[in-house]
Amino acid sequence: MFLCATFAYFTASVSGNDKASSIIVNTAKIGTITFADGDEVSLPDALPGASSDEKTFTIKAEGGSGFTSIPYSIQLLVTKNEITNSELEYTLTNAGTGDGMIATKTEAITATTGSQTIGSGTIAPNETHTYKFKVTFKETYSDQSTNQGASFEGKLNVVTGEGTTYYNASNPSGTTTQPSSTTE
Q1: 87 with 140: CB under 8 angstroms?
Q2: Helix, strand, or coil here: 182?
């Protein structure tokens, strides 16, 4: 299943000298955000070292004369995290090339609920950024029985522009309201 979202970012500039009366507005926009296999992440009844969920998504910017680079951030909305002791981690890997791409990173997910920014970048006109996101219940080679039968649920969002706009499978045209569950 491919899910797409589009959004725009505006810039204004005055052309000419200090007496110029015209303002030219150029619209730069990210053409699509595609989640190849959905934006929901889950680990039901997770097992250490054996449970993970991976998502691939692409951010593509359109180009043209006067277009500008667009900053964005990638967020993980945690709706349920029963895995304690920092034994749950994510890895965000850039799977392409581009000057403004997020560097590969791995961090623990410690929030039980709420939004966590997992990276930010800048995309230039006519550029495509592809990422792989993976959440893993890591094996510590020690007693992990406190997390027996624990689960994790969340959703990925790509956010851009002034005044936050959220894009995901449920809001392909964007919304200014932060999603509060995996059903939005």
Answers
A1: yes
A2: coil
Name residue 96's amino acid. Answer: G
Q: What is the CA radius of gyration of the chain?
A: 19
**pLDDT tens digits, 80-139:** 999 988 899 999 998 876 677 888 889 999 888 998 889 888 888 888 889 999 999 999
148 with 117: CB under 8 angstroms? no
Handedness of CA 169, 180, 104, 91 (dihedral sign): negative
For residues 79 and 67, is the Cβ–Cβ distance under 8 A?
Answer: no
Nearest in space to 125 (alpha carbons), one of 59, 58, 61: 61
- Closest by Cα among 143, 155, 141, 139 to 88: 139
Q: What is the pTM of this model?
A: 0.73
Q: Does domain 3-175 have CATH number 1.10.10?
A: no
| Closest to 57 measured CA to CA, from 40, 81, 43 | 40
- Residue-averaged pLDDT of the chain: 77
Cα dihedral: 126, 128, 129, 132 (round 10): 170
| Residue 161 phi, psi dihedral angles, 5° rounding | 85, 170
Give dist(CA 83, CA 86) in Å, integer. 8
